Amino acid sequence: MIGYTGRRLLLLFPVLLGVSLVVFGVMSLVPGDPALAILGPYATPERLAELRADLALDRPWPARFVIWLGNLVQGDLGRSVSLERPVLDAVLERLGPTLLLAGSALSIGTVLGLAAGMLAALRHNRSTDRMVSIGVLLGISIPSFWLGLLLILLFAVWLGWLPASGMTTVWADAVSPADVLRHLVLPVASLALVAAGVIARIGRGAAIDVLAAEHIVMCRARGITEHRIVLVHALKGVAARMMPVIGLQTGFLIGGAVYIETIFQWPGLGRLLVDAIAARDLLLVQGGVLVLATAYVLVNLAADLLQHALDRRIRPA
Fold first, then answer.
1. Is 222 within 8 Å of 139 (Cβ atoms)?
2. Which of 56, 60, 123, 240 sits CB 3.0–4.6 Å from 311 for a disulfide?
3. What is the mean pLDDT of residues 233-237?
4. E-strand spans in the chain?
5. Vertex 148, ends 238 and 197: CA angle to 5°?
6. Boundaries of every domain in the chain
7. Domain 88-310 in this protein, CATH class
8. Can you tell me the distance from the alpha carbon of 168 to that of 134, in angstroms, rounded to the nearest whole number?
């Protein structure tokens, strides 16, 4: 197990290197002059040349990538031109609200998805199973950003129960936890309901297989109550099988947070990246994507290790 964990941590470096190379290459292919986009059309040629030299825009992109990679090894992601502050400070400041949003959505989506999948499996080929399947189909068919707009229209515009935006910071002393929770409900619901649909659809099939397994049949033969069988024996096996799916859903939630934060004006890293792309702040975009990719890879590693902990029969490769 320790060797497997070490190998996965070593694989983290080439994965992140590939991600950073792709992001750097794509940003370099975007048409237009970043220096002109930053300074505006009235900037003097001297100031444009100075900024291009500061950002190494006067060099080929492979040379710029090597320079950026060398600074990254030293813990320096560069300095944001649009924010006029170090990229690492700006990214870490916004990372917390994004993790709060994605983590809450993942937790709620996992609980709802596993519960719906188990319920459908226990009522296999009955009306409850069909109703859950219809709900799951709707959940996975509606994009999270469209669901977010519908929730805004219903709960913020028509009913006025919850705010649609207005959260400028999360960790300030003047912001109460209740206020953060009220602003968090709609964006979390937009992400969690879609994730719950995916988890429930796959979890239903896993639960059907687990409930038909030999050790579950033996538990019933020994007279163990169905309640204990489901909560103690079956749910553990289903959760172990679902760990890779939950890990993949983390990536979709992190990616979905980019436009969900924009829709609800949530002060997270996704919204920061959208603003950085609009401002052509290359270093800020690269640093933000790299941090999100690191979080995604680490979560998937944790999901693999947790899967092995839940079911010792699953041996890491």
1. no
2. 240
3. 83
4. 79-80, 85-86
5. 20
6. 88-310
7. mainly alpha
8. 38
- Environment class of residue 52 by beta-carbon count within 10 Å: exposed (0-12), middle (13-18) or buried (19+)? middle
* Of 191, 183, 100, nearest in space to 139 by CA: 191
Amino acid at the residue 234: A
Identity of the amino acid at 152: I
**DSSP character at residue 213:** S
Query: What pLDDT is attached to residue 191?
Result: 93
Sign of the CA dihedral with 234 first, then 235, 237, and 242 last: positive
Distances (CA, A) of 211 to 26, 207, 244, 311: 48, 6, 20, 15
| 150/54 Cα distance (integer angstroms) | 45
Alpha-carbon distance of 271 to 170, in angstroms, equals: 14
CB contact set of 9 (below 8 Å; sequence gap of 6+): 301
Encoded tokens for 251: 């990536």
pTM score: 0.85
Of the ranges 16-20, 85-89, 167-171, which is most confident?
85-89
SS3 79: strand
Say which range, 36-40, 172-176, 224-228, 259-263, has the weakest mean pLDDT: 172-176
CB atoms within 10 A of CB 199: 28
Distance of alpha carbon 285 from alpha carbon 130, whole angstroms: 44
